[in-house]
Amino acid sequence: MNSTRIRLLGVIASAAIVAGACSSTATTAPATTMVPVATSSSSAASAAPTAAAIPTISADQLVTAGTLTICSDTSYPPQENLDPTTHVAVGSDIDLAKEIANRLGLKLVVKTTQFDTIIPALQGANCDAIISAQYITDERKQQVDMIPYFHAAEFFVVLSGNPDGIKALTDMCGKNVAAEKGTTEADDIDAVIGKACTDAGKAKPTAKVFGADTDALLALQSHTVVAHFTDSPVAGYEVKKGNGAFEIVPNLSVEEPNEGISVLKDKTAVSAAITAALKAMIDDGTYLTILKQWGVDAGAITSADVK
Fold first, then answer.
1. What is the C-alpha to C-alpha distance for residues 307 and 303, in angstroms, rounded to an integer?
2. Engineering a disulfide at 5: which of 76, 82, 87, 118 sits with its beta carbon 3.0 to 4.6 angstroms away?
3. Cα–Cα distance, 241 to 53 (Å, whole number)
């Protein structure tokens, strides 16, 4: 099982947001687009880096000296997306990345990268790390090192009133379910929902996958699927911003491992520095402050979880 990385109608239609969040790798060359990052307007950013406990990263370990470059699928609010008005990268993951860069004494650069090509983008030296709601899976750990930083589950978003009566996995048997391409959810439509259906002697659901998570939500809105399968922070955001158009199926979720920040296995100095910065942020409360500002503090982990 592979994963973790919304917009509602008005927001989605008006914002040309690029792609985000979770599973297999692609063989085509990954496309990345550098996007501006919003200036921190809150008290979440630390006044000064806690450099004493955080190792430095030499210039030869970075894609660009003096810069922490991250790849992120910026179609996955509230964790990462492009602001529809300013078109700058925003979200809880982006703010966490800014704070990590700050504590490392580096400038942050975000490159929008479609989720199903995000690991190849890292391997191709397009970025120093991936911060994009990626679930930590055995398959991914064979390719990259992953530093735990957040916890989410997989939820089902349906149209308001739940017109298709989705209450259990088997209620989706033989029906269309939407997810973002490359995510764990896309895989789990077959691996989890499909298994429940075949165990019950029913037809498997059909996975309708999209390059951006926001497009999967539009499929739900256009009644071409019965549910949008996505991460819990994203599901909550969709319902909150949907003006009553959507709801989350209660008491129905798929638990997943923590999400992780991905770094190349040979970039041990980068991994060590990011790990130390993240631990310091958790210990001094900055991490939780950032998550609360985005309404995703239910996914907070502890310093002991960062290994």
1. 9
2. 76
3. 40
